[in-house]
Design goal:
The complex is a heterodimer of chains A (about 190) and B (about 550). Helix content of chain A is about 45%, strand content about 0%. Chain A has about 190 residues and is mostly helical. The longest helix of chain A has 17 residues, at about 75-90. Chain B is built from 13 helices and 18 strands. Chain B has helices at about 15-25, 55, 65-70, 110, 125-140, 165-175, 220-225, 275-285, 360-365, 380-385, 430-450, 515-535, 535-540, and strands at about 5-10, 30-35, 75-80, 80, 180-185, 230-235, 235-245, 245-255, 260-270, 310-315, 330-335, 350-355, 390-395, 405-415, 420-425, 455-460, 470, 500. The two termini of chain B are about 40 Å apart. Classes of the chains: A mainly alpha (about 190), B alpha/beta (about 550).
C-alpha cells in the first residue's frame, strides 16, 4: 500500500470544475501529443478537433489539491512537463514526434501510461467520437454517450428458445456426496 | 461519552447481511440499532450520467478502498487487494448482482475431500433453501426457472435479463460442445418494484445502479427496516464490541463527523461488517477475558480467508456483439465442470460466467485483460476490430479454505479514527491454480466453438503472478461443527460468546464456485429468524450450545 494513502476527502465526481487553464503553448503540446497517440482519419476526428483538453483539464488536480486519484497528475508539475516539451515538440514532423513519444514511453513509463490512458478516456468520451463510432462501426451503431438515462432496452435480443431447449445438465444431490479418491489427485 | 442507547439487538454493518438482519428482526418487533461507518449513497453520486463514466471506476468508484480513499474507508495492507464498499448498502452498492445459489454439494466438501481446512457446513442446502427463497422475494430477482444443473428455484420477481448478442454467441459455443449453460439469475429488477425502476440494460452494473434496479440493500431492505423503526446510525465507526462476564454488552463507536464517542448497549450483538471488517473488529475488541480478540480463543478469527480463484478471459469475434448493452457481469454461466473429478488432478470445480465489457475507452484500454489498442498508426484498426465484438468469460473457481490465508491487524497503519488497519495474507493453493488453468482451456474451447474468434487475451491465473481479485471475500469467521473447527455454531452464534453472532460472508464455511451474496444473505435471514424465535433462550445461555443441543427453530 502506498505511503500516500489519505482517507480524509472524497474525490470530486466529474473532476474539478471548472478545470485548470492551460496556456496556449501547453495546449499546443498536449494536442500534438494526443494527435499522435490517436491519429484521426477513417471517419474519426483527431483529438485536437474535439477538445480532449477540456476533459483532461478537469482531471488534473488543481494547485492546492493533492493528486491522489487517477490520473495522479498535479497542475504545476504537469504544466512544467508540457512546457519542457514546448514548441520544439510541436514543430517536429509527425514522424519525429512519434520517435520523441516513444522515448518518453521508455523513459517515463508511469507518467506516459497515465497520460495515455487519460487521453484515451478523454477522446472516446467526446460526442463527436461517439458519433463517428455510430456512423463507422456496425458494432457501435447503437452506442450512446453515457449509460444513463436511456440505457439500451429498446434494442436487446431475447434468449434463443431453440438453444435453451437443448440445454442439458445435472447436479449432485446432498445424499449423493461421497469421498473422492485423493490418490488420483496426488498422482 | 454521551449517554448510552439501549437496544434488543445491535447490528454492526448496514450491507448485505446487516440490512437483511435488521429488516427481518424489526419485522418481528425487535428493537434494533444498526451502526454503519459510511454514509448514504445518493443516486446522483453514480457516474452513469457523466462523460468520464468509464474513468470514474479508477477513482471514487474504484472497488479498492486503498485506491478510492473515501473518508468512510479504512486502509488494508498485505499482499492482496480486497474489494468492498462502506456505506448504507455496503458492498452491494458496487456489486455484480449475479445471483446463483450454492449447490447441495458445496455444503459437503469436507466429506468429499477435506483438503487444507475444508470442512462440511453444519447445515445442508435443503436447510438453507427456504431462506434463499425468502431473501429472493424480499429483494427482487430476475431468473429463468428450469436450469437442469441446479435445484429448482422459484420464479423471479421479473423475467430473466436478456442475453442479447453476447449471450447468444457464447450459448452457441456451449451448445455446440454439449456443455451445460443457463441464463444467469441476477438480483436486478426487470419490472418495477416499490420505488425502484426496472433495469434499462445500460450495461454499467459494476458502477452501482442509479435506478435502484440492482438489489443493493439501500433500496431493498433499508426502506422497510427504517419504516419498522430500526435506529440506523451512519458515519458510526465501531471501535470495540464491549463484553463482560463472557457476554457481549454492546459497542462503543465514534461519530466520524463530530469525533464524539457513543455507547450502544444491547442484549444481542450481530456483526456484519464483511469478511475483512468483521475479523478486524473482533480482533480490535481484545479486552479482559478475551486477550486475543472476541470469539477468538481458538485463533480462527480471520483465518480461512477465501476470494475465489480467478482468470478473466477476453475473446473478440468477427461480428458485432454490442457488449455495452445488458447485464455486465452475469449474462449466462456454464457449470459443466462444477463437480470434483479427480482425474483432472484437482478437487472442486468452477463456473464459466459470461460477462460483457463497457464502452469504447475500456475497449481501447485493454477491456479486462490489458490487451490495449496500440497508440499511433495501428490504433484505429485495432479499435475498430475490437470494440463491441467482445465476450468475457470469468473462470470462477472454488478456492480451498487455508488456515494461513487470513486477516490480522496492522498496528503500524491506522484509519482516520486511529484504529489499526486490516492486514491480509493470501496465497493461492496449487490445487486452485491447476483448477483455473484447466478452466481457462475450457473457456477457450467454448469461444472457439462459438465460431469467428479473432483475438484472445487473459489475465492468467490471478493470485499467482500477483495478488488476485478480492471481489468475493469469505470465510474469516466461519460456521462449523465444533468449537475447534470454526468461529460459530450452525446458527452463526460464536462459540465463545453466546449472544454474539456473525451474519455476513465471513460465516460461509466454504466458498463454492459462484458469487456468494445470495448465500450470505440467505444465511443472514436464517440467523435473524433464529434470533427472533429463540431470543429468550439465547439470553439465558451462558455457554454457546453445540449444534446438537442448540434449541433450533
Amino acid at each position: 500500500m502506498s505511503d500516500k494513502v489519505d482517507f480524509t476527502t472524497p474525490p470530486p465526481l466529474g473532476g474539478w470544475l471548472p478545470g485548470i487553464k492551460f496556456t496556449d503553448r501547453q495546449t499546443r503540446v498536449l494536442n500534438a501529443f494526443a494527435d499522435e497517440l490517436i491519429p484521426g482519419g477513417d471517419g474519426f476526428p483527431a483529438p485536437s478537433e474535439v477538445n480532449v483538453i477540456g476533459f483532461v483539464a478537469r482531471y488534473v488536480a488543481p494547485k492546492g489539491q493533492v493528486a491522489k486519484w487517477f490520473p495522479f497528475l498535479a497542475e504545476e508539475p504537469f504544466k512544467a512537463w508540457l512546457d519542457r516539451l514546448g514548441d520544439p515538440f510541436v514543430k517536429l514532423t509527425s514522424k519525429e514526434r512519434v520517435e520523441e513519444i516513444k522515448a518518453i514511453e521508455e523513459s517515463e513509463v508511469d507518467l506516459f501510461g497515465r497520460l495515455r490512458d487519460t487521453l484515451y478516456y478523454a477522446y472516446y468520451s467526446r460526442p463527436e467520437v461517439v458519433r463517428a463510432i455510430n456512423i463507422n462501426l456496425e458494432a457501435g451503431r447503437d452506442y450512446r454517450y453515457s449509460p444513463q438515462p436511456f440505457g439500451y432496452s429498446d434494442n436487446m435480443r431475447e434468449w434463443d428458445k431453440v438453444l435453451l431447449s437443448r440445454v442439458r445438465g445435472t447436479y449432485k444431490r446432498t445424499n449423493e456426496v461421497v469421498g473422492v479418491d485423493l490418490k488420483e489427485i496426488a498422482g | 461519552m454521551s449517554a448510552h442507547t439501549e437496544a434488543d439487538v445491535l447490528v454492526i454493518g448496514a450491507g448485505a447481511g446487516g440490512a437483511a438482519m435488521c429488516k427481518r428482526l424489526s419485522d418481528g418487533g425487535v428493537k434494533v440499532v444498526c451502526l454503519e461507518q459510511g454514509p448514504w449513497m445518493h443516486q446522483l453520486q453514480h457516474a452513469h450520467f457523466y462523460d468520464a463514466w468509464e474513468m470514474e471506476r479508477r477513482r471514487g468508484w474504484n472497488w479498492e478502498p486503498n485506491v478510492r480513499q473515501l473518508p468512510e474507508d479504512y486502509p488494508i495492507t498485505g499482499n492482496a487487494a480486497p474489494q468492498m464498499m462502506n456505506g448504507v448498502g455496503g458492498s452491494t452498492l458496487h456489486y455484480a448482482g449475479a445471483w446463483p445459489r450454492f449447490k447441495p454439494v458445496d455444503f459437503r466438501k469436507g466429506t468429499e475431500h477435506g483438503l487444507e481446512g475444508t470442512i462440511d457446513w453444519p447445515i445442508s442446502y435443503e436447510e438453507l433453501e427456504r431462506y434463499y427463497a425468502i431473501n429472493d422475494a424480499e429483494i427482487g430477482v430476475a431468473r429463468l426457472v428450469g436450469d437442469p444443473g441446479n435445484p429448482v428455484s422459484p420464479e423471479g420477481w421479473g423475467s430473466v435479463c436478456r442475453g442479447h448478442l453476447v449471450g447468444h454467441k457464447m450459448a452457441s459455443g456451449f451448445d455446440k460442445l454439449g456443455w451445460h449453460w443457463w441464463p444467469a439469475a441476477n438480483s436486478v429488477l426487470t419490472k418495477p418494484k416499490d420505488n425502484r425502476l426496472a433495469c434499462n440494460d445500460c450495461g454499467f452494473c459494476l458502477g452501482g445502479c442509479p435506478r435502484g434496479s440492482i438489489s443493493s440493500t439501500d433500496v431493498t431492505y433499508w426502506p422497510s427496516a427504517l419504516k419498522n423503526g430500526v435506529d440506523l446510525r451512519i458515519n458510526a465507526r465501531v471501535e470495540q464490541i464491549d463484553a463482560k462476564n463472557g457476554l457481549a454488552t454492546g459497542a462503543t463507536y465514534v461519530d466520524r463527523l463530530t469525533g464524539e464517542r457513543h455507547e450502544v448497549r444491547a442484549r444481542v450483538v450481530v456483526v456484519a461488517a464483511n469478511s475483512i471488517g468483521t475479523p478486524r473488529l473482533l480482533l480490535l475488541s481484545a479486552q479482559k477475558g478475551h486477550p486475543d480478540g472476541l470469539a477468538n480463543s481458538n485463533g480462527l478469527v480471520g483465518a480461512h480467508l477465501m476470494f475465489h480463484s480467478w482468470a478473466f478471459e477476453d475473446y473478440w469475434f468477427d461480428e458485432p456483439l454490442e457488449g455495452f448493452k445488458g447485464p455486465e457481469p452475469g449474462v449466462l454461466y456454464c457449470q459443466e465442470f462444477y463437480d470434483t473429478d479427480p482425474s483432472r488432478g484437482f478437487v472442486n470445480g468452477f463456473s464459466l460466467q459470461v460477462g460483457t465489457a463497457l464502452g469504447p475507452a475500456n475497449s481501447a484500454l485493454g477491456t479486462n485483460t490489458g490487451h490495449r489498442a496500440p497508440w499511433g498508426a495501428g490504433h484505429r484498426r485495432f479499435f475498430n476490430d475490437h470494440f463491441a465484438r467482445h465476450a468475457l468469460v470469468y473462470v470462477q473457481g472454488e478456492d480451498l479454505p487455508v488456515r494461513t490465508n487470513r486477516v490480522t491487524l496492522d498496528k503500524n497503519v491506522k484509519d482516520t479514527s486511529g484504529l489499526p488497519a486490516a492486514h491480509v495474507h493470501y496465497v493461492l493453493p496449487e490445487n486452485d491454480r491447476k483448477l483455473i488453468e484447466f478452466g481457462r482451456a475450457r473457456g477457450r474451447e467454448a469461444a472457439e466453438a462459438a465460431g469467428g474468434l479473432i483475438d484472445y487475451a487473459s489475465t492468467g491465473v490471478c493470485a499467482v503472478n500477483g495478488p488476485g481479485p478480492g471481489w468475493h471475500i469469505m470465510g474469516t469467521c466461519r460456521m462449523g461443527n465444533t468449537p475447534e473447527d470454526s468461529v460459530t455454531n450452525k446458527y452463526n452464534q460464536t462459540w465463545d460468546v453466546p449472544n454474539l453472532f456473525i451474519a455476513d460472508a465471513s460465516s460461509l464455511t466454504t466458498g463454492a464456485a459462484v458469487n456468494p451474496t445470495s448465500t450470505l444473505q440467505a444465511v443472514a435471514v436464517r440467523c435473524a429468524e433464529y434470533i427472533k424465535h429463540r431470543h429468550a433462550d439465547i439470553l439465558a445461555q451462558k455457554k454457546t450450545p453445540s449444534n446438537a443441543t442448540a434449541p433450533g427453530f
